[in-house]
Design brief:
alpha+beta; Immunoglobulin-like; 2 domains
């Protein structure tokens, strides 16, 4: 009786662990498919005071909307009292008008084949005629980068 009870318990534990494994594998495959179907491109960047306005397009087939899980990194030279000082920072997502070191999506959900705009608020003005590097990665992993003078 004890052996039968132990065997039944082990079978239930094994079945439960297989269910957890199968669920994790299905989630992994779903995320992999969404990653494969995600493609963004930076089209243009303009400067408005201390804000970078980034025009981008969603060339993939996945809706992009979970912006709080995006990563936005900006590397540029700040103009601090006429001196060029390098700034490399990761910016946080904001649902409203961004403060320094924050960014927001100006159009909401970025559907496939649509154009979108992000506003990135810099902590200090860009030093004249210096390159800016912007790296944006999506919540699914793929991203885009832009380098140039805005």
């Amino acid at each position: 009786m004890v052996a039968l009870s132990t065997l039944a318990s082990m079978a239930l534990i094994y079945q439960k662990s297989q269910d957890v494994y199968d669920s994790a594998l299905q989630t992994y495959h779903a995320n992999q498919i969404q990653s494969d179907e995600t493609l963004i491109r930076v089209l243009n960047v303009s400067l408005s005071g201390q804000d970078l306005i980034v025009g981008l397009t969603n060339n993939g087939s996945t809706n992009l909307f979970d912006f709080r899980h995006f990563s936005v990194i900006v590397d540029y030279f700040e103009n601090l009292n006429g001196s060029a000082v390098e700034s490399l920072e990761e910016y946080n997502y904001s649902t409203s008008s961004p403060s320094p070191l924050e960014w927001t999506s100006l159009g909401g959900i970025l559907l496939p084949s649509e154009l979108g705009r992000f506003e990135i608020s810099l902590p200090a003005p860009v030093f004249v005629s210096t390159n800016v590097l912007i790296v944006i990665t999506t919540d699914y992993g793929p991203g885009a980068e832009w380098r140039g003078v805005p």
